[in-house]
Amino acid sequence: MAGGWRRINAARAVAFLLLGGPIVAGILLTLLPAFGFLPALGGESFSLAPWKRLFAEPGLAASLRLTVFVGFASSAAALALAFAVLARVAGRRSGGAVEGWLAPLLASPHSAIAIGLAFLVAPSGWIVRLLSPLAGFATPPDVATIGDPFGLALTLGLAVKETPFLIAVGLAALRQFPAQAQLRAARTLGYAPAAAFVVIVAPQLYARMRLPVAAVLAYGLSVVDMAIVLGSSHPAPLSLMGLRWFLSPNLDDVFIASAAATLQLAIVAVALLVWRAAEALALRMLVARARSGMRSGVLEPLARGLALAGGAAVGLGFASLVVLVVWAFAWRWPFPRAWPESFSFEILRRATPRLASPLGATVALAAVSTLAALALAVACLEGDDRLGRRGSSALLYLPLLLPQLSFLFGVETLFSALRFDGTFAAVAWAHGLFVFPYVLLALEGPWRALDPRYARAARALGTGPLETLVRVKLPILAGPLLLAFAIGVSVSAAQYLSTLFAGGGRVATLTTEALALVDGGDRRLSAVFGLMQALVPFVVYAAALAAPRILHRRRLGLVDP
Amino acid sequence: MQFTREGTTLKRWICAGSLALALAGISASARADGDWNAVLARASGETVYWNAWGGDERTNAFIAWVGDQVRDRYGVDLKQVKLTDTGEAVARVVAEKSAHRDADGSVDLIWINGPNFLSMKAKGLLYGPFAQNLPNARYVDTTAKPSNVTDFTVPVEGYESPWRLAQFVFIVDSAKVAPPPRSLAALTDWIKAHPGRFTHPDPKDFMGASFLKQALIDLAPDKARLLEPADDANFAAETAPLWAWCDAVYPSFWRKGQQFPANEPALIQLIDDGEVDFAMAFDPAEAAAAVEAGRLPATVRVTTFADGTIGNTSFVAIPYNSPHKDAAMVVADFLLDPATQAHAQDIRALGAMTVLDLNKLAPEQKALFADLPTAPALPTSADLAKVLLEPHPSRMTRISEEWRERYAQ
Predict the structure, then answer these.
(1) Mind telling me how many Å the CA of B362 is from chain A's nearest CA?
(2) Is A59 at the interface with chain B, CB within 8 A?
(3) Three-class SS of residue B111?
């Protein structure tokens, strides 16, 4: 039976263990206290008391309504806007340029975009300041445009961040089938542009984007970082209520916090099923419409409007980054001035001592967790190649679909039982749980698309398997490897909850510091931290996009079109 | 059974502790009656570990300055142990006591007040009484600044020595509010006349809780009652005027009282954004410091209610097991020196209001205060009116909880 275990991809087994171990243990160690079992705090037997307390909590119903609304509305909006933009670019060859343009938004952590967006849309924000000469505002309007009880600001923030993400994912997916040729054919058959896209391209495109879309939905339903900046506190989304209980000085709150985290898990699971059912329904309606031969231009105005809105969402994202730069160097910027009264490097100078250690931690955590994830991903894919089959990655993508709150407290419990909590390694591992799936997702497509004849030729010339990997495959894949590295860095740099829990509050990164400053008042200091937070992954992203052009300047075939 | 035995041991320890404390008290007063010079002589060459909250850079710099001064003048080596919470130092002394380290503790001086003082005093963890015997104690204001004598309703009784004053103040934009209201009634009228321009921080933040305390005192029919611990029978009646006031004015608040800023810095940002016209602070120099830092317009001013606002005093206390009590007393005395107090009140140094009664000073000492640089946003001691005592701490937790139930659902 020796051949039996040789059929197992060892790297995948290791990945399952490193990722699955903490996640399964984390969920279990959250489930137990949710049902009253946590001996360390006197919970010796199972009970429904935490659930009774949770459901008796005033405001829970409002919080659930808000959570579900924000999750579905932001995901549906991001998807519709992204598809509308994709419909405009699908017929053109400008996809690569669009991707390059989106890089700053893709690289920026959610919380940095949220901080910038808050500076834009607040009642005293940049937008109102720019409009005030027209509207005649001497004082900001007394309306809650951020932290509103309906979750509109949070929905907007999520849509602004997820639209570019889905556009980028969609652009990659469009390259996997001859969309351009199909569109051309459809147009010659008399389909209007929008109808051609909706009937012919959209279903094929969507089928290739299911996982990222599901990840967007799960994220929107359980968002913490953006909710801290843009969400309301009464009612607060379920994720924030749960987090508050987890961080409460009253240790007994761990029980109700665990129940809230478990409820969050259930909500995400049900929501994903509902979304799946909606997909099926939409497809059936689409097929019916297609059979009826719909090809007219009725969809044109809607498509144009949505594409415009998609452009506006991307524009808001960029403006969020720009306003961070302006505030970081402003000295006095009183309302209703459209531009700061005075500029200064003073805030940056004062922030420098406070920036140094979180910056170092951010860079080190990103480097360690991403390099480890990249090595493991390459090992998984190379293992598949050597076994001559495709391993299933479905389970490895699970961290993208689970609400972070539903297992990170359990991970902290596990780490502290192992006397491992609060260490750099613990935080790097926790980051790795989220970095690895994204790195694998980014690398899997290009790796599988690599023409196997390169490796076969090398082997035929007598090159060993390791040398083939290092001297043939990896250099050809340098571009995708660098991009996967950049994506990994941006995922790690954005981590909030995992840093907070695995670090036991003792490891500070730019993201944890930036979010700690949100309530702290000085907007200029907040801007400095938000900007630094966005800058680190962006520099890596820019380098990853530029490097292949330099590395491969003599090998045109390896430079992405 | 184990439990009972331990209880007995604990009781015996407490008795022994209070006996030692009484003896220490006697020797301290004997010493002070005798010769302060002897204290100075013993202090020279000793090291004082001052456990002080380290979250404020200006305060840390001031403590470093004090260290330079006492080294040059008295040969005392002062080291600040920066705490993130004063409770850490209290816990350390408690741990030392249970480990019977009764003569060689690691804490010589603590920046303390309120609940931490109450708990250390009640557990017999403090050396004293010593404060009234310090040579500079005669300048302390014990009449207009009652918080120098009664710390959050707990009598000080010489177990801690004051060094800086905090008082509840309003920060107003004089370009928009002139003249500022000087009583709660006038403020109420102003709020109703200018809907959406006033708010207070969320009461789960201490600044928000302080505003409610201030309003509670102004509205209470029997203010003396508030210094007693809260009891169930009276709580509803005592707080009814406060809730009636909230119900009446919240509709005219910023965001109609549906949203509250998280804390004092968030409120400062709101006034700078022009969203509201009032902020509040517990440090009378906060406004001037914020103007200096570019966080507030130059037109802001500080004001209080004419009948006074609540205030509390920051003290230093000496743990019972400090091995360097003489040197610690020298530092406590230096902090009360009129020249030190004038330096602390200097906006360029710390901007902390003095605990001294300027009328008790000699003319040349008074001149030190008169010569301090002024800033339009910096109130003078005369501007600050009277300091009112904090209500009993037991009441505040309940008020915050009740507020949450009424207004945060």
Answers:
(1) 41
(2) yes
(3) strand
Selecting from A59, A232, A522 the residue whose C-beta is nearest the C-beta of B265 gives A522
Facing B295 at nearest CB: one of A234, A335, A522: A522
User: Would an 8 Å CB–CB cutoff place B60 in contact with chain A?
Assistant: no
B241 at the A interface (CB within 8 A)?
no
Looking at residue A24, its pLDDT comes to: 93
Statement: residue B6 has pLDDT above 60: no
Q: Is A336 on the interface with B (CB under 8 A)?
A: yes
Interchain CB contact of A519 with B (< 8 Å): yes
| Amino acid present at A512 | T
Tell me the C-alpha distance between A272 and B382, whole Å: 66
Split at pLDDT 50, 70, 90, the class of A95 is low
pLDDT at A6: 60
Question: Does A101 reach chain B within 8 Å, measured CB to CB?
Answer: no
Predicted model pTM: 0.84
How distant is the alpha carbon of residue A211 from its chain centre? Answer: 12
- Domains, chain B: 2-145+314-374 (3.40.190.10), 167-311+388-407 (3.40.190.10)
The long-range contacts involving A243-250, CB below 8 angstroms and separated by at least 24 positions, are A243/A405, A243/A497, A246/A405, A246/A409
- Per-residue pLDDT for A1 more than 70? no
Cβ–Cβ contact B295 with A under 8 A: yes
DSSP conformation letters of A329-368: HEEE--TT-SS-SEE-SHHHHHHHHHHHHHHHHHHHHHHH
**pLDDT tens-digit profile of A365-407?**
999 999 999 999 999 999 998 888 777 777 888 899 999 999 9
The predicted model gives B400-404 an average pLDDT of 88
3-state class of B125 per DSSP? coil
Q: Which of A334, A346, A524 sits opposite B274 (nearest CB)?
A: A334
Name the pLDDT band for B398 (thresholds 50, 70, 90).
Answer: confident
Residue type, A126: W
What domains sit in chain A, N to C, each tagged with a CATH number? 1-32+346-561 (1.10.3720.10), 46-344 (1.10.3720.10)
Q: Does B274 touch chain A (CB under 8 A)?
A: yes
Q: Tell me which of A57, A63, A124 to substitute to probe the interface with B (most B C-beta atoms closer than 10 Å).
A: A124
**Helix orientation angle between A523-551 and A300-329, rounded to the nearest 10 degrees:** 110
Of B254, B297, B408, the CB nearest to A334: B297
The share of chain A scoring above pLDDT 70, in percent, equals 96
Q: What's the Cα-to-Cα distance from B77 to each of A75, B49, B92, B93, B347, rounded to whole Å?
A: 62, 9, 21, 21, 26
Interface residue B273 vs chain A (CB under 8 A): yes
Q: Residue A232 — left, alpha, or beta (φ > 0 → left; ψ -120 to 50 → alpha)? A: beta
Q: Which residues in chain B are contacts of A520 at CB distance < 8 A?
A: 263, 265-266
> Does residue B331 surpass a pLDDT of 90?
yes
Q: How far is A141 from chain B (nearest CA, A)?
A: 8
- What pLDDT sits at residue A2? 42
Q: How far apart are CA A358 and CA A161, in angstroms?
A: 24
Q: Which residues of B touch A346 (CB under 8 A)?
A: 294
pLDDT band of residue A7 (cuts 50, 70, 90) is low
Nearest to A521 among B256, B266, B408 (CB): B266
Q: CB contacts < 8 Å between A and B, how many? A: 65
Cβ proximity of B342 and B136 under 8 Å: no
Instruction: Kindly list the residues from chain A whose CB atom is less than 8 angstroms away from the CB atom of residue B300.
Output: none
Give residue B8's pLDDT: 33
With contact defined as beta carbons under 8 Å apart, do B47 and B324 qualify? yes
E strand or H helix at B64: helix B57-74
ipTM over 0.85: no
